[in-house]
Each structure stands twice: as C-alpha cells, then as structure tokens.
Amino acid sequence: MNKSIITLISLGLTFISCFVYAVEESYPFDDVQQQKIFGELVEELRCPKCQNQNIADSNAMVAIDLKNKTYELVKQGQSKDQVIDFMVQRYGQFVHYDPPINMVTIWLWLVPIAIALILVVFVLKKGRREKLGSEVDANSLDQAQAIIDKLESKGKS
C-alpha cells in the first residue's frame, strides 16, 4: 500500500513538474530606456499571422521572430521610429497598429468621419420631420375639437 501511494505521488509530481519547463522569454537590456522602447514596440507591432494581436501577446512563430528582431534592433541602439520603419518596410503597413496618414490610409480616417456626419444629418432631419408631424397633429386636433363643439351645441338646442 505504501509503495503504491509513493508511486502515485511521484507520478503526480512528475506530471506537475512538466509545467515548470514552460519557457518564459527573457529580453535583458543594459539600459532602462531600451527596455522601455522594446516594451512599447512589442505592444505596437501587430502579428502578421494573428490578425488582431500584437507580438507581445502572440505565440506564433512569426511573432516570436518579430520580437527577437525587435530586441536585436533595440539592442543595437536603433530608435523606436527606426525599428518601426524596418518592420513596415519588411512586412508592410499592416504590421503597425498606428498607420501614418497618407494617400493610401486617408480613407481609414475619412470614412468614419463621413459616416458620423451622415448619421448626424439623418437624425436632425428625422427630428424636424417629427416636429412638423406633431404640429400637423395639433392642428388636426383643434379642428376636430371645433367640430365636436359645434355638434354638441347643435345637440343641446
């Protein structure tokens, strides 16, 4: 009985210890400023494979490669803009969450504004129609009340 309990405990501990081997990526820096830049970059750069996930949160191989390349470039002393330029040149504008305003990306900024303006105009016109509709109803009510008063006065006489 003792041997079976010890065996079960050993197997359980062996199973649990498998999780200890999970790899936590470490990116050591000599400078706090470089570490800050790296942290900002991995949050701003998008994983090309994982549609809407930054490379900090993605476990895809391409995201790991991007993180490693970002680390390498930051360790070389390149600025945040230089690293972003390198990544955009290599992977396209999609890799950066904050694309610049240019002729290709201007529609990303103008379409939401145009939709908002159309909605505002639509709501204002609808409000005017409702206001006009309520005035017509008030006039109709006055006319109906006048007719009722006439009928009531004829019925009394």
From TrEMBL:
Record-level Gene Ontology MF annotations: metal ion binding
Q: Where are the transmembrane segments?
A: 106-124
Which positions fall inside the CcmH/CycL/Ccl2/NrfF N-terminal domain? Answer: 13-138
Q: Which GO terms describe its biological process?
A: cytochrome complex assembly
Give the signal peptide, or none. Answer: 1-22
Query: Which keywords does UniProt give here?
Result: Cytochrome c-type biogenesis, Heme, Iron, Membrane, Metal-binding, Signal, Transmembrane, Transmembrane helix
Question: Single GO cellular component annotation?
Answer: plasma membrane
The record ties this protein, via Pfam families, to:
CcmH
Q: Describe the function of this protein.
A: Possible subunit of a heme lyase.
What family does the database annotate?
A: Belongs to the CcmH/CycL/Ccl2/NrfF family.
- Name of the protein in its database record: Cytochrome c-type biogenesis protein
Which source organism does the UniProt entry give? Catenovulum agarivorans DS-2
Which lineage ranks, top first, belong to the organism behind this chain? Bacteria, Pseudomonadati, Pseudomonadota, Gammaproteobacteria, Alteromonadales
